[in-house]
Amino acid sequence: MVKLTFIEPSGAEVAIEAQEGWSAMQVATSKGVEGIDAECGGSCACATCHCYVEGDVAARLPAPLDGELAMLDNVAAERRPNSRLSCQIKVTPEIEGLILRVAEVQS
Ligand code: FES
Questions:
Q1: What residues of the chain score a pLDDT lower than 50?
Q2: Dihedral sign (CA 90, 99, 107, 85)
Q3: What is the pTM of this model?
């Protein structure tokens, strides 16, 4: 299990022991984290699972692929250098302790 912390738009922090191999979006939606719509179900086609990755661990994330970068052009909230689509973040031991701040609006 890998510890992830989500910060909901309200500011509430939700710490989760996440299953390896899942996406961060799947983890969040399965635990009822507020603010992630994930309308496409994780196929990198909706940009409604937008999060800002924070903390030292963020530097260990694999870089986004072209499809994610293109879809990040469509996020409803401000796109920042640390913007990611949570459906494209795979839970691995390397991201233990990652903080994901859920974007305030998704669509
Ligand atoms: S769930 Fe649709 S792009 Fe992530």
A1: none
A2: negative
A3: 0.97
